[in-house]
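Q: Got a minute? One more chain.
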Amino acid sequence: MNKTIQSLIKEIVKVEVSGKKLISGTIIDLGSDLLVLFNGKNFMYIPLEHIQKLEMDQNNEEEIQGPTEDPSIKATEEQQDLTFKETLEISIGRNVEIYVTDNQPLHGQITNVQDDYFVFYSPIYKTMYIPIAHLKWLIPFAQNESLYGLNEKNRIVRSNSGVYAHTFKKQIEKFINRIVVLNIGGVKSHNGKIISIDEQIIEVQKVRTNAIYLNTNHIKTLHLV
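A: Always. Here it is, folded:
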């Protein structure tokens, strides 16, 4: 555990996250690879690898108040530190907000967590495949807070792990000859048919032009059309 950041627990800070996103809040907890921040409304679980800069917010210009209750996801008595992957696993079946790219938070439920990616069900985009390395933060909904007004019978449950490959690259291989959307939203979004994957390079046939070649390391989301 980082002792420097640990000394800031209960302090109000400003955090710059990858993508030049600025967040203010109170540091609630620190795990081996994540920070738990309360922004005055929600508990945010932020991977340390995406924190670009952190500083004390002496003036508290946003007048952030501390939480009145504990976060819903926290380390158990058996755990020394909560990890980000464990946070994802605990979140399975819960309503959550996640942030991956292009100022477009996604809302839905995590249904499965694999070695280096997780499966996310969005009522808007349906089943999505997202590398863990690109997830900037996760916000669990309050226990009684619904998703788009859906009731409990619409809740998604954990999906069968056997349906999915263990790694993101292997999962992409299952979609050869399928039409997909890569990197939802923004100028880096692409859609087309996956032709092949060789090492970390994917060949994607566009609708009327020649194929393009994308590096899997820079694919942040994938979903079938």
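A: The chain has three helices and 15 strands.
Q: Perfect, thanks.
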